[in-house]
Amino acid sequence: MRRYLNILFLLTAILVAACSVEEKSHAEGEEATYTCPMHPQIVQNEPGTCPICFMDLVPVTQSGKENGELMLSESQIALGNIKTKRVKLGSVGSNSILTGKLVLDETQTDVISSRASGRIEKLYLKESGQTIKKGQPLYELYSEELLTLQREYLLALAQNRELGKENPRFASFLEAAKKKLILYGLTEGQIRNLARTGQVSPRITFVAPAGGVVTEVAAAEGQYVAEGGVLYRLGKLGKIWVEAELYPQEVANVKEGDEIKVSVEGFGQEPVAAKVTFISPEFRAGSQVAILRAELPNPNDQYLPGMQANVILPSDTGSSLTLPTDAVIRDEKGAHVWVQSGKDTFKARMVTLGEESADNVAILSGLKENDKVVVSGAYLLYSEFVLKKGADPMAGHQH
């Protein structure tokens, strides 16, 4: 009996020893080694510092060498200002801002033509782009036809003064002669001056019938023009257009009739409202942008063509996963973020982006709510991965 118990005890001891050896071997297989992030040739079995750069060695397990993860020490995280944030549902929360430019309203264009045939003696405005006001002198015309009409008016005036009391018809003759001069472009002041002085002149100065901006000068001094010949083209400033370029992802966020806000450079007041009147149905040749046009009120003619403006599109009120813009790294393969996968361990993950503002961007796919994403120091992680692994963290990923 005693012999039987001794054999049983001996077998139990051998079994326990074998299990201990197996556990020790397994533990040794999973034992972490330590390496320097800057000098991966430095490898040892216990914590310490790098003999070259004196950085803290970081643990690297055999099973985690090729899993695409990046492990940093606590000092590296502190020095790199690596901060994480749990991704949540929300709104991008900011309007899209486009760079635009003010242009003339092409539907508000005036053509100034010669009222009579003759020769252009003088042009008061010789360059396009100049702003003029109503009643401002534009050109001086030599015309025998206008000289004849002035003489007819003075004759009718003299007859009316002498015979108008006896025969009312002379008053109607005078009125008809005056209307002719007005139709030919003379002003009331010029006609009164003609009646007062009684002096006719073949050279008549014509003034602007309306204010605006000279968009074209179609005549030159010394040129003979026919009645109705185009001399100037004017653009009115009562309303002005603002044009901006839309990228494909922005076209769906705005339509004709929408109200947008426009902030003109140099004017510090609050953005003013403008109405979208046109969105080009096709992209501009050689680019991937469409043209948005909005009508901007300009009651005091304070805005001029060529001024720069910011066009503020209304933001989407929908809810989606959002991240700060700086958390996203973009390259030719797409966009990715760094997600904390364990203690002091980070892994790159491909994402699909949605609406974007100056501060935030919507994440359409690649993340789920409550994932811990690096929002500060993402580019440092990217550089560290490339330096340590010698490869792009998104290599092999399909976007």
UniProtKB/TrEMBL annotation:
The keyword Signal applies. Residues 1-18 form the signal peptide. Residues 322-381 form the CzcB-like C-terminal circularly permuted SH3-like domain. Residues 34-60 form the Heavy metal binding domain. Keywords: Signal, Transport. It holds the Pfam family CzcB_C. Residues 145-201 form the CusB-like three alpha-helical bundle domain. Residues 239-314 form the CusB-like beta-barrel domain. Residues 110-234 form the CusB-like barrel-sandwich hybrid domain. The keyword Signal applies. It comes from the Bacteria. Belongs to the membrane fusion protein (MFP) (TC 8.A.1) family. This is Efflux RND transporter periplasmic adaptor subunit. It comes from Pontibacter ruber.
